[in-house]
C-alpha cells in the first residue's frame, strides 16, 4: 500500500496490495490446452480445454492430484461444465453445438443432446433437479431446454452429423476438432422446436444460472449475454420458459458470468467490473472496479465470492464487497473457477490448473484487521499503471483501457458516464455527470452547470531515466511519483472525488459535468469535432473548470488566469539533387541547409523579438489592474527565494521592475522559438544533405488572431526565401494551432475560486499567467459561451513532461478540498441570463 487512511469507501473496490493469506498448494498441467471450464465434486475435478486436445474432458483425482480419465466424445472446445446437485451427472457443452451427460462414477457418456437447429457454440449449461430439465445458452442468442422425463431418443444417425452442420459455422473458440468413432451405447436426444426460445437476448447467451429470488417460489433462471442485460425467467414443468424481468447492467459491456449469494446477484462484465443487484428490489447497488480486464468467472463458497479475470488475477470478496485476498500465480488469463470444501480451483490460458487451500480462516477473512487504503489513491494507482500515451499507435489499446477505467470510476462513484468516440484511429473522450440534488422550490432556477475539462493521455516516459518505474505509482517523502500523476490524472480524480463526496453528503447543488479527452498531448486531434457532435451534453455550461498547470513556486497556491496560444510549424527546404559529397559538389550547388540557416536568421531580432511584420500590432495593452497583480508575485519571489524553483532574484541581481518585465515576457508577450533543425542523409561531416527541416513555434497572446499571425509568418518566410539565389524549394506546414486564453480575475467565478483556495490553504492565491497552451480551453469558452477558471494543483517542481513526474500528496488532497469548496461557493450564484452569455 502507498498510504494508510482511516477513511474507506466501500462503493469503490480497493485492491489489495495485501499479501495472499493462502498459497497455491498444487498445479496440474492440462497437456497443451487452455482451461476453459471446471467442475468438481469433493473427490474429483473435471476440466475442459481448448486446442488440439480441447475436445477431451480431463478427470483428476483430488486425493493424489493425478489424471484419472479422459472423457472423449466432443468434437470442439469444452465451454461449460456443471454437475447435478448430487454430483452423479456431469453436463458438458461444447463448441461443436452439443451437450453430453456423463456418469461421474463410470465415466460413461449417458446422453448426447443436440438442437434441431444450428445453435453455434453452447456457452452455458445448467440443470434443474426439481424439473429434471436442462437449460443451455447458445451463440445464436437462443435459450433452449430439454426435459429428461419427457423425451424420446433420436432415430439412429451418423455420430458426425452435428459436426457436419457445425463445419459451416465459425466457432467462437477456435481449435482443431477431432472426429470420433461411433458410440453404440450413447442415447441421442434432439431438442424439439417447442424447447427453444429464439432471440432471448440481443447477443450471445454467455451464462446461465439457476437460483432463488426472495419472495418467489421455485427456481428462477438467470441469463447474461453480450448485450449486457441480465434476464430472469420463470420456470414451469413441461412449459416454455417465461420472461419475467430484465436487469439493466449497461449496454457497453457483455455479461460473461453470474453468481448468486444471499439475495444478491453478482454479474461479471467485460472490462473488469462486477455489478451487484439486490434481488429484493432488483436494483443495481454496486458496480465494483474489480479487475483490470474482463471478469470471466465467479463462484460462491461459505459466504465468500471469488472472481477470476483475463488480467490473470483471482480475488476473494467479503460481505461488504471488499477484496480480501488476491492470487496472481497464473501466467495469463484466468478463464475458469470452481470450489470444493477444501479448495478454490482456477484454470488459465497458461494451461495450468491451480489449487488453493481454503479453510475456515480464509473464508472468514473479513474479520482480519486490514487497513483501508484511500480510495482516490487506489484509483490513481490503477490509472497510472495504464500507459495512456497518445499519438503512439502501439498504445491505443492502453489509452482505451484508461478511458474505460475512468468511465467505470465515474459510474461507481454515482455519476452518469459514457465514452464519446474520437477521431478514427484516435482515443475516445470520457463524459460524466454528477447531478445536483433535487430542490423542493418550484420557482427556483435550474442549478448551475460546471464543466470540468481535463485529459487522461500522457507523454511517453523513458523508464531508464526515472528513479522509479514511471507507470507504477510510488510514494516517497510525501510525494507521489508516476507519469500523469500531476498532468493530468491526479487533478482529474481530485475533481471527481470532490463532486462524489458532495453528492454522498447531499450537498451537491450544482451539476458537475466532466469532459476528459485522450488526445491533449497530441494536439487534441478530433476533440472539437467530437464535442460539436455531442454539443447537447455541454451547451448549457455556465463555467468551465480545469486544473492543468502548476504553481509559480513551491509554497503559495495560485490561480491561473491566462495562457498563451501556440502555432507550431515545420519548414522544409528540399533540393532536386540527392545527398551529395561536399568534396565533389561543394560550392557548385544550392545547399538546403545553408538556405535554411539564412531563412531562420530572418525570423528573430538580436533583442529576441520576432521579425514577422505586424507581429506585435494587436497586443492588448497592460491595464493597471493586471499590472498590480504582478506586485505580490514579485514581492514573494524576492522575500521567499527558497520557495522558488526557477527563480532566484538574489543570484541574478535583477531588480523588482526587471523581474516583473521578465514575467511579462514569459506570460503576456508573444514569442518565436526555433526548436530544432534536422537534415537528410547519414548526417556526417562530408555530406551535403538534400533536405533540411526546422521546427518553429510562435506563442501568441491577446488580441492576436491565429489566422493573421499564420498568414504573416508564411508571407515573411516566402519573401525571405524568395530573395535567396537558390534552386531549392521550400514548404511550410502548420502543424498545430491553439488559441490564447485570458480569464477575468474580477469575474464571480474567479472570486469563488479565490475564496475556496483561501479557505483551504489559509492564504490568498497569487494570480498568475502561463506561457504554455491548452488547445481546448479558449475554443470551449467560445463554443459554449461560458467563462473558464483554472485552478492549478501542483507545484513548480512537479516535473510534468519530464523524468520523475510527481505531485505532493498534500497538494492532491487539499486540491480536492479546494474543488469541493469551489462547488459549494457556486451554490449562491445564479444562472446568468441568456443575453449575458452572448
Describe the model.
This is Peptidase M20 dimerisation domain-containing protein. Belongs to the peptidase M20A family. It holds the Pfam family WD40. GO terms for molecular function: metal ion binding; peptidase activity. One of its GO terms (biological process) is glutathione catabolic process. With 838 residues, the chain is an alpha+beta fold. Helix content is 20%, strand content 32%. Helix 3 packs antiparallel against helix 5 and helix 9 packs across helix 11. The N terminus is likely disordered.
Quickly list its features.
six-stranded mixed beta sheet, alpha+beta, disordered N terminus, WD40/YVTN_repeat-like_dom_sf, five-stranded mixed beta sheet, 838 residues, hydrolase, peptidase activity, Peptidase M20 dimerisation domain-containing protein, elongated, protease, 47 strands, single chain
Short description:
WD repeats lie at residues 71-112, 327-366. The protein is of the alpha+beta class and 838 residues long.
